[in-house]
Amino acid sequence: MVVAEWQALPMGRVTTRKPVLRIDLAAGSTDRRPDTLVVEEPLEIRVGGDSLAVTMRTPGHDMELAAGFLVSEGVIWATEHIRAQRYCAGATVEGVNTYNLLDVDLAPGVAAPTDAVRRSVFTSSSCGVCGKASLDAVRTTAVFDLRADATVVDAAVIATLPDRLREEQAVFDRTGGLHAAGLFTAAGELLVLREDVGRHNAVDKVVGWALQNGRLPLTGTVLQVSGRASFELVQKAWMAGIPVLSAVSAPSSLAVELAAEAGMGLLGFVRGPRMNVYAGTERVRVPVPA
User: Fold this and answer.
1) Is 88 a catalytic residue?
2) What is the pTM of this model?
3) What pLDDT is recorded for position 187?
């Protein structure tokens, strides 16, 4: 792998300023002023020059995003599976590099993505599995066995994670419009946090960071997300070997079923001292009443 090719895009395009009309009915006032918004742009991911998917994302950590996406799709699962990543020059007819087209070179011997992985439409910021040809293509086979990971996390630690996540969301503070995914140790130490307009992209960026740093599988970790726990997020966590997924909102029924199948601890409505454990109750240590 060419280390230089992992360099991240400068963060200048993460936010932008747009004019807005502010209305205050209580005060009976209006005023016009610029407001800070999160940037949303398409990223086309190519593998060996062939288009694989287009996802709507917040620019920044794009190489992590592409790597995490490939992990989530079961294409790669080790750092050495990627030889290089690069933004494609001449992305427009004028020859301008928009930094919205990224090509991934797989290492020799690593199989290229199958047609089942390729997306036929845009992957929106709200859907990470849109565009797949069939439901069978949605479910990928995980390389890592979560049941071999004996991680147990104190409920008191999990209770602190949403606030810890929120405290570290620098871009959210300026825009109010981003999802976040944070990877923590079982003791509550933050390893990495990524923000994106799409919750699935935020998770892919975390997984891509782990791949870059040779940390897969993510044994002994907890993934905390700022929104709900969908099927796609559970699948991404499983593909990265994450034993516990915690969300501030509700899981879907399919997410619960997949977590139970994987042997993953899945928590929802984690808000202060209250939380629901939907799967893997054995992974959550609850204090014994005195």
Assistant:
1) no
2) 0.87
3) 98
